[in-house]
Structure formats: structure tokens, C-alpha cells
Automatic annotation (TrEMBL):
It is found in: Mitochondrion. InterPro entries: Hypoxia_induced_domain (IPR007667), Rcf2 (IPR040153). The chain crosses the membrane at residues 20-37, 111-130, 146-165. This is Replication factor C, subunit RFC4. The lineage of its organism: Eukaryota, Fungi, Fungi incertae sedis, Zoopagomycota, Entomophthoromycotina. Keywords: Membrane, Transmembrane, Transmembrane helix. Pfam families: HIG_1_N. It comes from the Eukaryota. Residues 83-174 form the HIG1 domain.
Amino acid sequence: MSPSQQQLSGYQDSAVKGAVVGGLAGLAIGGLGLLVGPRFAPKLQTLSVPLKTYWVGSAVAAGAVINGERAYQAYDADVRRGAISNNGTVIPQEDSESTTSMSEFVAEHRYGIIGATWVAGMVVSGFYLSRQKYMTFSQKLVQARMYAQAITIIALTATAGISMVNKDETPRRIPDAYREKKAWEM
């Protein structure tokens, strides 16, 4: 079974819509950081225009790529579970009482958990180190980064262990219709 043209255009449409929404969110976050940032870090005012543009552009690009990929994967999950038919129309699904276990939640959201752990580690260690009066700001920043890095490695190891709990389940196999054929398979 190969994907229909409507499904392929649905993949592209969902990825583009997600990328546009993510790019706008990145523009808002990057612009807000550029406007509010100098209040907390006065050296941000001395940045040149190309560096400020790079700051906002990086936020836009990151938001577009991340949200576009999420939208693509959500559409793919709908196609795979049968919520979208071969002609691209949405089939209403019955609400199934599926309880997700902790290991399934961690396996599905592991990158968000790791990123949030890093941010929380930076914030908590930054507050802790801000009371040290004999350290310079750069020393405090390096120490906070090291603490956050250690916490992130612990979280990375924990999420890998938790997501491997259900390893006895059969792995999800990509159907041949969705797999790109190599030159020797033609």
C-alpha cells in the first residue's frame, strides 16, 4: 500500500503549517528576549545589528524546524493509526480509554523532559550561586552550567532507562510503502 497523493500533500501541508506557527512563536520569543534582555543583561544593548538579527533569526529557525517536525509526526501518527484515509479525509475516531503508563509518557516526551531539566538546573544552580559573593559573574555562569550539565546527564540516563522498560514489545516497523528504496532494491 503506497501513500496517496492526498496523503503526501497532507504531510507537506501539516509540516508547512507547523513550521509557520513555530516560526512566528520563535519570532515572538526572540524579539521579546531582545527587548527585555537588556534589562537583565545590559551588555545586550551593545550588540551590533547583525548579531541582533542573528539572535532573532536563530529563534525563528529553531521554532520553525521544531514545530514543523512535530506537526509532521502528528499527521504521520494519525495516518498510521487510521484516523486519515487514503484520500486524505479525516475519519472521526472513538475516544478509547487508553491509559498511558509513565514509561510510555517518558519515551514519547524524552527530549522535552531533558530540555526542561537543563533549564531547571540552570535556574536553580544560578539562584544558588548568586549568593556566592567571592565569585565573579563568569565563574558563577560556568559553575551553573556545570551543575546543569550534570543534572542533564542524570536525566538523560534516567529517561533512557525508563523508555527501555518496555523493550520486550515488538519494535515499530516502517511499512515498505513509506520506506525509501535504495538503488539496489529497485
